Amino acid sequence: MADEQTVREYRTEELAEAAGIPVRTLRFYRERKLLPPPRREGRIAWYDDHHLARLRTIAALLDRGHTLGGIAELTAAFENGRDVGQLSELLGMGWSEETPVRLTPEALADYFEGEVTPENLAASLDLGYLATDGDEIVHVSRRLLDVSSALVREGVPLAAVLETGRTVRAHADAMAALFADLISAHVADPEAVGRLRPLAKSVVEAELSMALDRLLAARSRPEGQPSS
């Protein structure tokens, strides 16, 4: 029979230390209802890894410029059952074609067996891939979740996938700015960037495909043989 999964619990001081915040900040978050209530055992408050994940989400959102009021709105929206499809809007990401996915911690562990470490969770939160909703986790993109999981199954460490994702994000931001500048400079319609978005995606997909063709062809040539 498989052993039951051990749930780690923290006293107030231990949780604050694990999250890298002062105890008074933790208590302030509780007063603002940014954290779900702890389990009580007499006068002792016991927190678990879900509370720690929520604190890391708060830290990541604060680093991205969100206010505590905005984070409280996000938390309240989820706890009141708002559709997860509104996650991007609440996080200030605007309209998106990506489909967010709700996951239990166990389901996330199944996607990335043996790779769901505190370090990888913190990196995912920092990138904005993950947010927490009570006992559930929300991934902002079904496509990125599936691709990341597939790469891990192929043997690529999740930490390397996330670090590469950070680099891809920087290049993608630069390409988006390049496309927006091109359209804004030559098309008078203020809605043109959004309207012509599919063209930008097609260009990026085609160029990446041809770049991979060139790379694979170069690697398959015998050493010293020039390209045709």
Structural commentary:
This protein has 228 residues and is mainly alpha-helical. It folds into 2 domains: 9-155, Multidrug-efflux Transporter Regulator, Chain: A, Domain 2, CATH 1.10.1660.10; 164-219. Helix content is 59%, strand content 9%. It has helices at 12-19, 23-31, 49-63, 68-79, 87-90, 105-111, 118-127, 142-153, 158-186, 192-195, 197-220; strands at 9-10, 39-41, 44-48, 101-103, 130-133, 136-139. The longest helix is centred in the last third of the chain and has 29 residues, at 158-186.
Q: How would you summarize the topology of this molecule?
A:
Elements: E1 9-10, H1 12-19, H2 23-31, E2 39-41, E3 44-48, H3 49-63, H4 68-79, H5 87-90, E4 101-103, H6 105-111, H7 118-127, E5 130-133, E6 136-139, H8 142-153, H9 158-186, H10 192-195, H11 197-220
Helix pairs in contact: 3-7, 7-9
- Mind telling me the C-alpha Rg? 22 Å
How far from one another are the termini?
62 Å
The profile of the biggest β sheet is:
3 strands, antiparallel
CATH topology label of the largest domain: Multidrug-efflux Transporter Regulator, Chain: A, Domain 2
Helix content: 55-70%
- Low-pLDDT stretches are none
CATH architecture descriptor of the largest domain: Orthogonal Bundle
- What is the CATH level 1 assignment of the largest domain? Mainly Alpha
Mean pLDDT: 83
Secondary-structure content class: mainly alpha
